[in-house]
UniProtKB/TrEMBL annotation:
Keywords: Disulfide bond, Glycoprotein, GPI-anchor, Lipoprotein, Membrane, Secreted, Signal, Transmembrane, Transmembrane helix. Its main location: membrane. PANTHER family: INTEGRAL MEMBRANE PROTEIN-RELATED, PTH11-LIKE INTEGRAL MEMBRANE PROTEIN (AFU_ORTHOLOGUE AFUA_5G11245). Belongs to the RBT5 family. Belongs to the SAT4 family. This is Extracellular membrane protein CFEM domain-containing protein. It is a lipid-anchor; GPI-anchor; Multi-pass membrane protein. Residues 1-20 form the signal peptide. InterPro entries: Extracellular_membr_CFEM_dom, Rhodopsin_dom_fungi, SAT4-like. Residues 119-261 form the Rhodopsin domain.
């Protein structure tokens, strides 16, 4: 087919009337369509893209390479609307992950509050955990808000202003996340300090506490002020706003590398973040990054509350095996289990656990029990 000016003008008039708002194919996207369809098919117009997904992908690549970001997105949107391509949305997955892990973490926090509230041994770890919980809820609330603007859908399917909103809410969630991760580390250290009052431990823990504190503040500020002006953080996607940014990827990678020492989930988060590099499709591609972030956050909160769960188990489910404890009243010949022989490199070792599982309501103290001490048989 020869590309006549008439065909070009006809194609330029392709637009979609959506809710009273007209989307018009840009000249540049029209140029791509005309060139590709005349090169590869005998038909003309956007309709040619509907049945030939390879050709459609060539068209989208041409939009992306030769047009502005906004023109490319509108071109792709019109094509998707014309061809009735499915309007995908995987926001539900992210909400499921965020809210399930939030519910579990909140369960842990409430248990902890009840258990330690009764025994009235409040400390800095509880304050840090409480603050982290508030921040965690703030972070989770960002999920349904951003989904209302189209988080989880393809970026070309949502209005430009909504893309800005999604990225803005994502940014706010990121601030919560950065603060929360630091608070969880501080909560852990404060908790360990309560648990191990030894001087040697304190010598290590207090400097670490200082580092976590400074690190939390520094990364929060780095995150907030990564771009100048701050709004450029969520405006830069279309390449039409003016501003400058720090290399966020580098900052985020450093942040995650530090975090890797703390949680495995951070590794998954880092992985999903590396996949994001240079994404053109933020509202869709951010989903795994988003839910690994929330998962890491909630797993951290749940972990810090773990010891209180043990107190509950010991009190109400003394025989479940996790709940046993050592106490002077519990060592007696009548309850001693027969030592179990374990063969290790030719030597006979006897392994015994000289304790009995009983419901223990006398104390909700959290203590460590030297489990599986091996004694050499002589
Ligand atoms: C369309 O493509 C031709 C050939 O590459 C180019 O000369 C022309 O400027 C393009 N028109 C528009 C509106 O982009
Ligand atoms: C961009 O436009 C030029 C000329 O219009 C064309 O040759 C090229 O194939 C286009 N890019 C893509 C990815 O199609
Ligand atoms: C895509 O089309 C939808 C209508 O289905 C419209 O609301 C949205 O603003 C359009 N987005 C872009 C980027 O053109
Ligand atoms: C957006 O994500 C989808 C799904 O992974 C992918 O097929 C598409 O190529 C992406 N689009 C852009 C513009 O990167
Ligand atoms: C280890 O125990 C087995 C069986 O109780 C016994 O026959 C063997 O002699 C013991 N070995 C040593 C090195 O004590």
């Amino acid at each position: 087919m020869k590309v006549t000016p008439t065909v070009f003008v006809a194609l330029l008039c392709v637009h979609q009337l959506v809710l009273g708002q007209v989307l018009t194919m840009s000249a540049c996207a029209t140029n791509c369509t005309v060139q590709l369809t005349s090169r590869f098919t005998s038909c003309s117009g956007i309709q040619c893209f509907c049945d030939d997904h390879k050709l459609a992908q060539l068209g989208f690549d041409c939009f992306e390479e030769n047009c502005t970001v906004r023109e490319a997105l509108v071109g792709r949107n019109i094509t998707s609307l014309t061809c009735q391509f499915p309007n995908r949305d995987r926001g539900a997955v992210s909400s499921a992950v965020t809210f399930t892990s939030l519910a579990i973490a909140l369960g842990f926090v409430i248990t902890r509050a009840i258990v330690f509230g009764i025994s009235k041994i409040w400390g800095w770890d509880d304050i840090a955990t409480g603050l982290a919980t508030i921040v965690m809820i703030g972070n989770a609330v960002c999920n349904p808000i951003s989904r209302r603007f189209g988080y989880g859908k393809d970026i070309w399917r949502i209005p430009f202003s909504d893309t800005n909103e999604v990225l803005k809410v994502f940014f706010i969630g990121g601030v919560f996340y950065t603060i929360g991760v630091a608070l969880i580390k501080i909560a852990f250290l404060c908790f360990y300090l309560k648990l191990f009052p030894s001087r040697a431990f304190r010598k290590v823990a207090y400097p670490l506490l200082g580092i976590c504190f400074v690190y939390g503040i520094v990364f929060t500020f780095l995150f907030i002020f990564q771009c100048s002006p701050v709004s450029y953080t969520w405006m830069q996607w279309d390449g039409e706003a003016d501003g400058k940014c720090l290399n966020f990827d580098l900052g985020a990678v450093i942040h995650a590398i530090i975090n890797i020492f703390v949680t495995l989930v951070s590794i998954l988060r880092l992985y999903s973040m590396v996949q994001l590099d240079g994404s053109m499709n933020q509202t869709w591609d951010f989903i795994p990054f988003g839910y690994f972030t929330d998962l890491e956050f909630n797993v951290g909160i749940a972990c810090i509350c773990m010891p209180s769960i043990r107190v509950v188990l010991r009190r109400y489910f003394p025989n479940c095996g996790l709940a046993t404890t050592e106490g002077s009243s519990m060592i007696g010949p009548s309850n001693q289990q027969a030592p179990r022989l374990v063969k290790i490199s030719g030597k006979n070792l006897s392994r015994s656990t000289n304790h009995r599982a009983t419901a223990d309501t006398s104390s909700d103290r959290v203590e460590l029990y030297p489990y599986n001490r091996a004694q050499e048989v002589t």
